[in-house]
Every structure is written in structure tokens, then in C-alpha cells.
Design a protein that fits this description.
The chain is an alpha+beta fold and 363 residues long. Helix content is 27%, strand content 40%. The protein folds into 4 domains: 67 residues, conserved putative lor/sdh protein from methanococcus maripaludis s2 fold (Beta Barrel); 95 residues, Elongation Factor Tu (Ef-tu), domain 3, CATH 2.40.30; 72 residues, RNA polymerase II/Efflux pump adaptor protein, barrel-sandwich hybrid domain (OB fold (Dihydrolipoamide Acetyltransferase, E2P), Beta Barrel), CATH 2.40.50; 77 residues, Helix Hairpins (Orthogonal Bundle). The strands form 5 sheets. A 6-stranded antiparallel beta barrel has the order 2-13-17-15-14-18. The protein has a 4-stranded antiparallel sheet with strand order 3-12-10-5, with no helix packed on it.
């Protein structure tokens, strides 16, 4: 009985081993059978990739001409405003010393003005009696005019400190900051109570708000130095916005920088692409985007996958199927490539079958 069981087990193992051998042989044979790809007609587009963001063409920093503190805010971020519409109010906040100095300076200039007025009466009388020359009178008149200007300046300075508004030379200077353009408030940089430094010829001033006309947008990005030599202003560009993956936006290249920038140890060139105002997409400032700039395009040409082409000594070769189990290496002339598909100019015809390259196994 034991002998019968042993013989049966050996037979089962032999059959299983034979089956595994046949399966392994079949799989090896399948692995050795390489795929065939037909030569077809297709379109090839050579592109240069630019990486960047959507930005307003013109972005304005709103500043104040008077110092003080923010007392009221009329427009928040995201609000659309018309030119001349109030944005916020700056309340003058002079120190006690500044206010005292302004008042004292005005008083001193007023005293000086009173004295000069008396002197003017005397000089007018002397001139009428021809007791002074015209030149002496003209010199006095210049000094008189200077005193008048200084008095006005000190009066306007005190009025500005006390009321926050004044009219100088026909120009209204007031504490209510108004919108310089029609557009959206992109960012609010201050809150009520924050101090404000005025914009002058020697200081930049506090940025209160940032505004932009969102109807005039551009793509700002960079392209690799390898591609920049192929670009020309006026080229079309397909813009893909990360936040709007299904939207198609077509722009036009308007600017190519003459100077490279270093980015991640690579040389890149800044570019700008205009975004049409007729776009149906709702674009926001700061959206990340990629732009494909169309360098060259060929339609209805013979193409094969570039992976089946072998390049040797400035020549290109493919293996062509010439029978059920036959193949031959053939030299071809290639054309335009998009790094995935390549154009075949000579050496193949439509319908030919090229052989896939064997896949290298990682051991």
C-alpha cells in the first residue's frame, strides 16, 4: 500500500513539473515576440514649454500724500471700483511737537509779513518821490513776494496737519484716498489704525492697497535657454492654467527678455504672453500656468514613435517587418519631432510595420 502511494505521488510531481516547464517555455516565447507598429499619417507640433503665472498687465500700488493713520476703509480686497471712487481715509496724526512748531512758524511768518507790509508802504512812497532807484524797489519786491510765499506755505502746512486737506496750486490734497483707475482691489495692506507714511520725493511711502485692471492680463514665465533661440514675438501659445484644467486659452508672445536669469542652477529667459480679453475663463492674478509655444507644425505626414528609432553616427535606423518571421534594419531620414513622435521623410511608406525594440530587463 505504501509503495502504491509513493508511485502515485511521483507521477503527480512529474506531471506538474512538465506543466510548469511548458508554461515557462510558452511565456519565454511570448516575451521574445516583439510588437509591430504601423507607419501612419499624423500631425506633429514642436513646442517650447514656459512655466509661470497669470498676472495683471498693470498693477498699481495706492499710496497717500499725507501722513497719519488709517481712519476708514471703503473698499475691501476683491471689490471693483471706478476711478475717483473713495478707497480709504487717512486721519492726520501729528505729534504735539509737530503741531506746536507749525503754529509757531505761522505766527513768526505773520509777524514778518506785518513788518514787510509796513516797509512796502514806505518803499512805495519813496519810489513815487524818486528817492530810491527802480533796482532797489525791485529787490525789495522780490523779498516781499518771498515772505508772502513762506506765509502761505506755513498756513497750508498747519491746515493739512489739523484738517487733513488743503488746496495747493490748484491741486486738492486731502486725506481721502481715491481710486486712480477703474479696476479691482487685489490686496489690502493696511487696517484701521495703522500708521501711514506719505509718498514724497525722498521716501516711497506706505502701500495702502494694490489695484489692477483684470481685463488686461498677461502670462509671465520663463523658457529654457535651449528653446529661446527658436522663439519670435507674435508666436501663438496654448496656455494651460492649473486651476482650470478644461479651459483652453490661446495667447500671443509679446516679449522675450534679452537677459537670462539663474533658476535652479539653469539659465532661463523671462517671457510675456498676452491673454485675450475675450477669454471665457475666469482668471485670477497669481494662477500657476504653463504655456506651450508653437515653434513648428506639420500636418498629415508619415510618423512613427520615436522610441522605435535607433540613432547611430548621425543616421537613423528602424527594424521593418518583411514577413511572418522576418525583419530587416532599414535606414530612414527623419524630420520634425515632438520627443514622442517623429516624422519619417524617406525610407518608409504608409502601412509598413516597424518592430518595437526589446525591453531591457533589470537584473
Amino acid at each position: 500500500m505504501k509503495k502504491k502511494i509513493i508511485l502515485t505521488s511521483v507521477a503527480v510531481l512529474a506531471v506538474a513539473g512538465g506543466a510548469l516547464f511548458l508554461l515557462s517555455s510558452s511565456k519565454k516565447s511570448d516575451d521574445q515576440t516583439l510588437g509591430r507598429i504601423k507607419v501612419v499619417r499624423g500631425n506633429i507640433v514642436e513646442k517650447a514649454l514656459a512655466v509661470g503665472t497669470i498676472e495683471p498687465e498693470i498693477e498699481i500700488s495706492v499710496k497717500s500724500k499725507v501722513s497719519g493713520a488709517v481712519s476708514r476703509i471703503f473698499a475691501d480686497a476683491g471689490t471693483f471700483v471706478k476711478a475717483g471712487q473713495p478707497l480709504l481715509e487717512v486721519r492726520p496724526d501729528p505729534t504735539p511737537l509737530e503741531l506746536a512748531e507749525a503754529k509757531r512758524n505761522l505766527q513768526m511768518e505773520q509777524v514778518e509779513m506785518d513788518n514787510v507790509e509796513k516797509e512796502k508802504v514806505r518803499m512805495d512812497t519813496l519810489l513815487q518821490k524818486q528817492l530810491i532807484s527802480t533796482k532797489e524797489y525791485e529787490d525789495f519786491q522780490k523779498a516781499y513776494d518771498g515772505t508772502v510765499l513762506r506765509l502761505d506755505l506755513n498756513r497750508e502746512r498747519l491746515e493739512l496737519l489739523e484738517k487733513g486737506r488743503v488746496r495747493i496750486g490748484g491741486v486738492d490734497i486731502e486725506s481721502i484716498i481715491k481710486a486712480p483707475i477703474d479696476g479691482f482691489v487685489l490686496k489690502k495692506n493696511v487696517e484701521v489704525g495703522d500708521p501711514v507714511t506719505p509718498l514724497t520725493s525722498y521716501q516711497e511711502g506706505t502701500v495702502l492697497l494694490k489695484m489692477a485692471d483684470m481685463g488686461r492680463l498677461i502670462f509671465k514665465g520663463t523658457v529654457d535657454e535651449i528653446d529661446v533661440g527658436k522663439l519670435k514675438e507674435g508666436m501663438d501659445a496654448d496656455i494651460k492654467v492649473g486651476a482650470l484644467p478644461t479651459d483652453k486659452i490661446v495667447g500671443r508672445l509679446t516679449k522675450i527678455s534679452l537677459k537670462a536669469e539663474k533658476k535652479d542652477n539653469a539659465s532661463v529667459f523671462p517671457i510675456e504672453i498676452s491673454v485675450p480679453a475675450t477669454s471665457n475663463s475666469t482668471l485670477r492674478a497669481g494662477y500657476s500656468a504653463n504655456a506651450n509655444l508653437i515653434i513648428r507644425q506639420k500636418d498629415s505626414v508619415l510618423v512613427v514613435p520615436e522610441r522605435v528609432v535607433t540613432f547611430r553616427n548621425d543616421s537613423a535606423f528602424v527594424k521593418v517587418s518583411v514577413g511572418p518571421a522576418k525583419e530587416e534594419e532599414r535606414s530612414i531620414k527623419t524630420g520634425l519631432s515632438d520627443a514622442i513622435t517623429i516624422e519619417v521623410v524617406e525610407g518608409l511608406k504608409e502601412g509598413d510595420e516597424v518592430v518595437e525594440k526589446p525591453v531591457k530587463k533589470i537584473e
